[in-house]
Amino acid sequence: MQLHEGLIVRDYRLLRQIGEGGMGQVWLAEDINIERKIALKILSARLSADAELVERFRQEAKLQSHLTHPNIVSLHGFFPFEGTYSIVLEYAPGISLKQLIATIGPIPFARALKILGQILDGLEYTHNKGIIHRDIKPSNIMVDIEHGDSVKIMDFGIAKALGDLSNTNTGAQIGTLYYMSPEQITDSKSIDHRSDIYSLGVLLFEMLTGQKPYDISTENAFKIQSQIVYDEIPDPTTIYPHIPQWLVSILYQMCAKNREERYQSINEIRADIRRMSPPVRPEPVINLKHEAASQPAPKLDPPPQEKSSLKRLFIWAVVIIILIVGYQVVKGFLFTGRDSEAADSLQVESPEANYPRHSQEDNAEPEATDSLKTKTETQPSAQPAQPAPADTL
Ligand SMILES: Nc1ncnc2c1ncn2[C@@H]1O[C@H](COP(=O)(O)OP(=O)(O)O)[C@@H](O)[C@H]1O
Ligand SMILES: [Mg+2]
Asked: CATH 1.10.510.10 in the chain, residues?
């Protein structure tokens, strides 16, 4: 079946293609009866021809249709149409986390934590129901950047329906491979919810650094699997230095190779984030549209130490300016106010009040002398002034 804009697929009019993955194409579509927008995932002809797989999809769709959570894309239906099968999904506006990372690079950690927190909420809900996602990765997370980065997780259980991904070597599924837990590779039959925790750790690494933790130059599935099982996750701060250490340690515990050493539940991760994170500081908001138009990666924030020393320098500069201006004002006041009370009191209190007049006064032109005299008579102590405050600065 040739898919195109305007095509009516059962009750849905295709509006525009919004994605393509290992399973087929995803279209934004409109329900022609109730005019509601939905996402239609139309399975490829190859998958649709596999009766066993289609049955697994139907079973998973049945399970998923009971999931109702603000951070999970709901599933509304599964139906055959002209030799293919389609899954009717809630339309999640925004962009995938994969696109977000590709556009802005490393996500500032407060923003990454906001996204992570919502994924934790969605996963906790399904884990409590005994449902494992099995394919947590950035392209399965939608982020509505226009509405406060609200998050929806997509494709629950799809990986289970697709079967053992570790035996595959196709380009589309290589993308999935990087996020697989070690036990998904070594013993995929025995995985539990802790596998999702590992995959989420890899996803967190990618959010914080803008990169996957493994060597992505290879398309060789065996090499990727070997890295997952044997290689340690690198220190993310070597890629992006502004990640706080407490968050790095949470990330490491999510990605522990041995699932017994991993966080045992979503709740444990949330509790550690709450316990270890400092009070929230405002971070610069990234305008994705602007960033995308001007440059692909965001500017690195200066490290916190640099910020605070700049602030200190600024405060000192202001203090110095105030002192200088203050000194000038006081000086002007003393030297110009002939009858000022301040000058009088200076005259009385200053021990230098009886200093002899400068000889230059005697040599001065008459008029000038007069004016000088008047000045010095009223402020005799002004000439042998106190050490200027400026000298002490
Ligand atoms: N329910 C949905 N709402 C909005 N966009 C979606 C939805 N489902 C899928 N997409 C988009 O289609 C893309 C491809 O999805 P998919 O076929 O599941 O492949 P993959 O997850 O391997 O990228 C997603 O990354 C996303 O951008
Ligand atoms: Mg998907």
From this structure: 95-276
By alpha-carbon position, which residue is closest to atom 13 of ligand 1?
Answer: 19
Instruction: Quote helix, strand, coil % in the chain, to nearest 5.
Output: 50, 15, 35
User: Is the pLDDT higher at 239 or at 190?
Assistant: 239
Closest CA to 92 of 145, 159, 15: 145
Ligand 1 atom closest to the Cα of residue 98 is 25
pLDDT at site 101? 98
Catalytic residue, from 11, 121, 135, 155: name it.
Answer: 135
Q: At 113, phi and psi to the nearest 5?
A: -70, -35
For residue 42, report the distance from its CA to the centre of ligand 1, in Å: 11
How many Cα atoms are found within 13 Å in the side-chain-facing hemisphere of 238? 4
Q: Mean pLDDT for the chain?
A: 80
User: Above pLDDT 90, what percent of the chain?
Assistant: 56
Q: Which helix (H) or strand (E) holds 250?
A: helix 245-254
Say if domain 8-90 classifies as CATH 3.30.200.20: yes
pLDDT score, position 348: 32
pLDDT at residue 344 greater than cutoff 70: no
Please identify, by atom number, the ligand 1 atom nearest to the C-alpha of residue 91: 3
Outline which parts of the chain fall under CATH 3.30.200.20: 8-90
Strand-strand pairing, 37-43 and 141-144: unpaired
348 Cα: distance to centroid of ligand 1 (angstroms): 87
Residue 97 CA to ligand 1 center (angstroms) comes to 11
Short-list 204, 151, 159, CA closest to 177: 159
Look up residue 207 and give its amino acid. Answer: M
Ligand 1 lined by 88 (C-beta under 6 Å): no
Report the separation in Å between the CA atom of 129 and the middle of ligand 2, taken as the mean of its atom positions: 21
Ligand number, closest to the Cα atom of 88? 1
CATH code of the domain occupying 95-276? 1.10.510.10
pLDDT digits (tens, 9 = 90+) for 20-59: 988 899 999 999 999 999 999 999 998 999 999 899 889 8
Pick the atom of ligand 1 nearest to 20's CA: 14
pLDDT tens profile 282-335:
667 777 666 555 555 444 454 444 455 566 777 777 767 777 766 776 566 555
Model confidence pLDDT, tens digit, residues 365-387: 333 333 333 333 333 333 333 33
Q: Ligand 1 pocket, 126 CB below 6 A?
A: no
Catalytic site residue 339?
A: no
